[in-house]
## 1
Amino acid sequence: MAVFSQLLDQLAQYDNQTCLIENDQSLSYSQLLKDAQSWASLFVKEGIQPGTVISLEGDLSSTYLEAFIGAIQLGCIVLPIGDSVLSDKRQDFLKASQVEVRCQISQAAEPKCAVTDVRADHELLQWLRNQKAAGLILCTSGTSGKPKAVLHSAERFFSKFLKSRKSFRTLAFFAFDHMAGMDAVWYGLASGSTLVLAPERSPEGIAQAVQKHKVEVLPTSPTFLNLFLLSGVLQQFDLSSLKIITYGSEPMPEPLLKKLNASVPDVKLIQKFGMSELGSPPSKSKGPESLWIKIASESLKIKAVEGILWIHSPHTMLGYLNAKSPIDAEGWLNTGDRVEVDGEYVRFLGRDSDLINVGGEKVDPLEIESVIAQADNIQSVIVKAERHALMGNIVVADICLEQPEDAMQLRHRLQWYCRERLASYQIPVKFTVVERLKMTDRFKQERS
């Protein structure tokens, strides 16, 4: 646990600086570490030993963060699960991770820890125990199948935070059980930043938190940024403190990026790349309106194999607990992301698994969305597959309109618009008008 101890020593140097603002209450770094030590002692009293696989269930709060630090300090293998995770998926997470003790963490009640009847015997878990090392498990969202349980060595995972960076007042937007949320919190803490917890993740709730606490950095997703623009909060709240908006977890539509640049010209927009299996390394955009990024890490190597991105990093996961590993014998991770490469820069085209097979033709939904988004009267769009007896799949589109329009007229107009710009098999067969596009609990567009 040398690396995590070094990281906590780094945090201790910030002493009485504010590390967290929650419900208008401030928590200092010194108090955070003191309370975390109390949590480690509490876990020992509950009979939890180093190497135990435990779930910490609850939303990010000062109490939750202290419990998490205490569990890692003790040497546990920790699975964070947020309150937004539905019951069926929660059971999938627990089973895949071989959780031995479940802990409910809440500020409103005493912690509840319950032993399960599971014996965690996966070889990777045993390897961590033999190393007397703590671990971290993050479960993928499972939108294209069963979620995968991603196991990280705490030593490898937390080593990337030892290099402190510039401190900012940062809004903790993503859930802590999501890699983007985990990285944002720890990059912030490692640099002595102040993390602001918003009471609700709605455009109004986020804008109000930015205004009230003078937030400088907002990490979020393209889907949420689209809602942010459509909601009108830019006109309702004073967001002048914002210096940086980082976006990731899904590809950014080019039309949306242009709207953002026009709407918040004084804010630096930075595209982030990350995944549960790797984390989110530092990145640099080619320009404010460019979707090309350079992954700026000396320890990380990239290559494209048949249009798919492969990454070699010292911070890669140990492996999956319930699936075949995508890491080859030389340590290269197959990300499953389709990319274009231009020297040091990469442009992400979407997940390979998102491609739609239409009668043997591979259709990219992002390409179609980019075309439709530029048509008149289109507020937002999502393209997805619908099963078809003869073709295997057909392409369909859900759209939100700026103004009401006759359904038949809209369908004919968009089909003619698409015919001039897309191949016949790419044109959506159905256009369905919806009030709002569906969003997952991780603030991505839902294509199911």
Note: The domain at 2-158 is CATH 3.40.50.12780 (Rossmann fold).
## 2
Amino acid sequence: MESSTVIPEFVDARVAPRGALETLSQEEIELLLSSGQGGLYPLFRQCALAVLNAGSDTDDAREIFDRYRDFDIRIVRHAFGVKLEIKNAPAAAFVDGHMIRGIKELLFAVLRDVVYTANEIVNNDRFDLSRPQAITNAVFHILRNAGLLGHKLRPNLVVCWGGHSINRVEYEYTKKVGYQLGLRGLDVCTGCGPGAMKGPMKGATIGHAKQRIAAGRYIGLTEPGIIAAEPPNPIVNNLVILPDIEKRLEAFVRVGHGLVVFPGGVGTAEEIFYILGILLDPANAGQPFPVVLSGPRESAAYFERIRAFLVGTLGEQALARIRIVIDDPAEVARIMDRGVDEVREFRKKNTDSYNFNWLMRIDPEFQQPFEVTHASMRTLRLHRDLPVHELAADLRRAFSGIVSGNVKEPGIRAIERHGPFEIVGDTAITGMLDELLASFVAQGRMKLPGTAYVPCYRVVRS
């Protein structure tokens, strides 16, 4: 009779630090263990579970938290510092009873960022997060603490944005672009999740290997609200958790030297309007920052719809700050390579840092956290009489709210209690928005493949 081995779904373990934060103060430990007001345990547990759940086949944060509702993580002090005691963790994070090395590094990156942000940023009078410059300083300090800004290399970091639920053809294309970037010695930074966030990193690893580049950087920037739905992919070797989506987006712009946008859904649309809202600010008119929208031939219609929506809302001037390249990975990489050289020369001439863009002006409208509620979604200013970068800011918020309703636990629960978010504004804008969102639904860009999508929004054409 053949015997079979039952693979457990949950694992208990005690894990020693690897990569970050081997010691903690008594006060830090108490904060991490506290579930009360001001305590860090709920946030730490949520982000830790997301990292351990890498490779999950769901993008529903609530489903993940419900499945692992008995998951627990505690701090244990010992003579050489601290260990993490884990109960009922996802078994996929372990091999033969030992936690996968890369996941262990990311787990302690979570610990590092949660503790540092709470103690040094949020609860520190040094940072008045109502002021734009203080917000930028906070982003700088979080990234520096994570070791992102210590490289004395030429500027070479390309940020890649795109959807987590893209199809196979689009995913393979992102790998080809990543490969071409890697061949040119360019590193990759993404939102750290699956799909268009994983593909460029995977391709870049091969390009780097062929060029014998052993120290390639595969940087993942995330935030607590999204990490459960988009857990870090296995290639990420430097994870940073920013406090909220706005600081995460600012971090992309400050550390990146160029940007490639692949096909995606509302999250990608949010990112497009974020970067264009910044680049269309007159204060940034002379600053080089290459932006390429690209996908395979099969995605040409998607980009045509995006182009039409940009022109219809922000005007032809929006197209002057981007390039659209269809089905040509090498050309995308060449544009990035040339563009990064221009960025280097600009920063050298203006004595700005190679690793953190201090000169880019980011309007407070793009910095202040947007609390997604039914009331805040209904009062967005989607009107043509707004300055173009301000309209971009509220369109960004509209897409951000839909992301929350799609995959973030608070947003999902708010929709269950009160029904869909309502979005109102000028008929011309809301009409185009409704059609764009409908196309995302029809193309399966709102949820992972094979998952039925129920809209969390309703566009009101006033």
Note: Residues 101-122 form the longest helix (22 residues).
## 3
Amino acid sequence: MYSIRKTDLPLIGSSYNFVGADHENVAVSVYLLEAQPGRGAPLHLHEYDEIVVVQEGRSRFVVGDEVREAVTGDILVVKAHTPHGFVNIGDQALKQVDIHVSPRFQQQNLAPTEVSIKAGLP
């Protein structure tokens, strides 16, 4: 069995980053996100599916043209090639696990849209 502590992973921005290719060549990568109020991810997309598990807090997600509030216990599925992003709209840290169905993170940042601007994405 392979094991690593979250705090031994690289902390980049608001996330501890588990890159599957660097850890026993696992087929998924994971962001362990801890975002302060007002922080989040701008509109972007991936070549693969992503699953987001909200552990604590409140966020506003944009997925395609849909805007949705997500709270503790919600699980969101974002299909490959779908523009998406989020912002912490709570008054405490947003904690979520973002599972990327890829051994390495691949992200293409996109220009803001009317929907993402109105939703308050960073």
Note: The domain at 6-119 is CATH 2.60.120.10 (Jelly Rolls).
## 4
Amino acid sequence: MGLETIASSKARWLRRHCNEDDDDADFVYFVSPGDRRRDGMKLGVYGVGKGGRVFDGWDGPYSVYNEWRRELSLLALGVEPEEVWNHPSRFRGKPFVELIDFPDSGNCCIGPKTSAELYHDFVAFAAQAKKHFVARSPTITPLVRGVGNRRNLKTHWRRQVGLVFATRLARETGGTVPAGSPEDRRWMLEAYRRFRGAFRTASDDGLMFYW
């Protein structure tokens, strides 16, 4: 199973309920009562308003995303994500908490105010992230380069996902994995940059949507 994130700016409310035309629309969001980080956005269906744009963020397996998010938590907070999930009050106001303590399942959204806060975190930690993620990445072909289209990207991730588990197992047992080339080890940094771009887009009166 995979996770896909897309952000838009200038989100425009369309109507309260979905209809059959939404399946054929170029791009729509649905903001539901369960979206706890919607920042007060009105419930219902949204499209991209005048002057708005769409930014593709993450598109890959949950397991790879969760490994990336784990490293983000270690980078910014020095703890595993489970520590944040189990004791959220201890980390309130800390960097990236709104993203680390966020469902990794689909059909959820993050509103413009929270997106702006997260974008600020991504900018503030850019220098540390450049060192951390390149050093910690399993050897996987980069997130975007070398994959021609979205269908190929999904196939590519399915083939590569085992490397994440092999790397984590090696760390936990004191073993090693092949280092690979520097270019092959930059996918976590590339993901970091794409999330930064996505939250920058969503912070402009938009939404970050997970499905």
Note: Residues 140-150, 175-184 have pLDDT under 50 and may be disordered.
